[in-house]
Write a structure and sequence with these properties.
5 helices, single chain, 64% helix, 2 strands, mainly alpha, two-stranded antiparallel sheet, 137 residues
């Protein structure tokens, strides 16, 4: 009875509780773990931000998500930086068109690799990018 009152008080405070455990500390189910790992790779279409957010939020909750989001983050970080620099250099008068083509090529390559990796991970298979700097250990 006292535990129910405590849970109601915690819910009133804005923190969802499930049997006394905060909702953001619950481990992911196997299906959720695979889902977030897949989304980390598919997020590569948008650069390194989705995989970074998934890594920071879910790394403690699911081992497969932690492994795959870190792999996706390590792979997408250098091309994202290069694409941002290329997009900034588009405003240079003489070679701006060349940098536009480079930025587009980076995005197309990143999209192809991200979709391929996401499909592998969605099948429950871990994916390792062949050429990856692995800055984040």
């Amino acid at each position: 009875m006292a535990e129910d009152a405590r849970e109601e008080r915690d819910n009133a405070a804005g923190q969802p509780q499930y049997h006394g455990v905060p909702a953001n500390a619950l481990p992911l189910t196997a299906s959720e773990d695979r889902q977030w790992a897949t989304l980390a790779h598919f997020g590569g279409i948008l650069g390194c931000v989705p995989s970074l957010l998934i890594y920071l939020i879910f790394r403690e909750r699911g081992p497969f998500t932690a492994q795959e989001s870190k792999e996706a983050l390590n792979f997408t970080l250098p091309p994202t930086i290069a694409a941002v620099i290329a997009n900034i250099l588009v405003i240079v008068p003489v070679v701006g068109n060349l940098f536009a083509v480079i930025a587009t090529a980076i995005w197309i390559a990143l999209t192809c690799f991200a979709v391929s990796a996401g499909i592998h991970v969605n099948h429950g298979q871990p994916h390792r990018y062949r050429y990856n700097l692995r800055w984040i250990k």
